[in-house]
Amino acid sequence: MHKKLFIPGPIEVHPDILKACSTPMISHRGKDYEDLHGRLKSKLRAFFNAKGGSIFLFTSSSTGAMEAAVRNLVGKCVLSCTCGAFSERWFEIAKENGKEAEACAAEWGFANKPEEIDKRLATGKVDAITVVHNETSTGVMNPIEAIARVVRRYPDVMFCVDAVSSMAGVKIEPEALGIDVLLAGVQKAWGLPPGLTICYVSDRALAKARTVPHRGHYFDFVQMKKFDEKNQTPETPVLPLLFALDAQLDRMMKEGFDNRYARTLEMAQACRAWAQERFALFPEKGYESVTLTAVLNNQGADIGKLNAELARRGAMISEGYGKIKAKTFRIAHMGDISMDDLRWLLGEIDDILRLKG
Ligand SMILES: Cc1ncc(COP(=O)(O)O)c(C=O)c1O
Q1: Hey, how many other C-beta atoms are within 10 angstroms of the C-beta on 286?
Q2: Domains within the chain, CATH numbers bracketed
Q3: How many angstroms is it from 354 CA to the middle of ligand 1?
Q4: C-alpha distances out from residue 69 to 17, 111, 134, 137, Å
Q5: Ligand 1 in contact with 162 (CB < 6 A)?
Q6: pLDDT of 258-282, one tens digit each?
Q7: What is the pTM of this model?
Q8: Fewer beta carbons within 10 angstroms: which end of the chain, N or C?
C-alpha cells in the first residue's frame, strides 16, 4: 500500500510531477536543454525575487552544495552556527575539507541568536558563516532576518544559508537579506523527488570564489558560472528532475508563491495546536519551524508502533533524529501536502493512540 509521506523529506510527490520526471531525455549540450536551463533560471529569479547573482543547479543532494559553499568561500576560517544534527554536519564538512572552523553552538531545541553571532563575528577571525535556517532534526527555525541584519554589518564575511527544509515553504529572498549562498535540495518543501539542489550564489561570492584555491572540480562555482553563461552545466545534469522542477514552478506560480507560504503556515499552526493539546512542542517557544512540527513525546507514545499502524492506513510520520530520537517525533507539513491531508493524518493518530484534544 502506498504510504503518504509526512516525513521531512522525501515528501509526498504530486502525480503531475512524477509524470514530468518521465519526459523523454534530451541532449544536455543541445538547444532544447539550453532553453530549459534558461527557462528554469528566469522562473527561479522570480521565485527568489533576485536581479543579480547566479542560480546554480547542482546534480546532488543538499550536502553537495553545503560542501561547495565552504570549499568555494572559506579562505580564513568559518563560523558554523550549530543547533542540531544538520548544522553540526556543516561544521564537520568544513573541517573535513581542511578549513579552519569554529562552532557557535546552541543547545538542541534552541535557536542561534543574533547577539551571540555578533559577538563572534566582531573578533574579525572569520571570513564566512554557515547558518541552517530550519534545523530539521529539532524542528527549530532560526531567526534568519535578525541574523542577516547582524551579518551584513560585516561586509567581508560570506553568509551561507542552508534552507534545505524551508525553501519553497517560507519566503526567503537572498538579495534582500544579503545572503551569499542559499541552498536547498528539492525533496522537501519543493515537493520533488531527491537528487537536485537549487543554489543562489551572490556576485560577491563568485568574486570571492575566484580568490580561494582548491575549490575542487565538481562544484567549483567559477566553472559552474562559465557553463551557466551558455545555459549549460559543466557535467551531465539530472534531467528528469529539471523537467519536474519546470513543471513544479508552473504549479507554484499558479498557486502563487505567497499563497503557498500562507498554506504552509496555516498547516504549521494547526499541527502545533494539535500537538500542544496532546503533548508539548520540542523547540524553544517562538522558534518553531513552519514546515515541520517536532513534538516532545511526553506521553511516552510508542512511535514505532504508531507508524506501523499508520502504514496500514496509508501514511508515515518521522521518529526523532539522532540523540533526541526517543524523546521526540516529527510531522512534516510542506510541499504539496494540504490542510485536508494534515487533518486526516492527525485524526488517524488520535484514533490509533486514542487521544483527545
Ligand atoms: C537542514 C538540512 N540540511 C542538510 C540536509 C542534508 O540533505 P541531503 O541528505 O539531501 O544531502 C538535510 C537532510 O535532511 C537537512 O534537513
Answers
A1: 8
A2: 4-10+256-353 (3.90.1150.10), 15-254 (3.40.640.10)
A3: 33
A4: 29, 22, 17, 21
A5: yes
A6: 999 999 999 999 999 999 999 999 9
A7: 0.98
A8: N
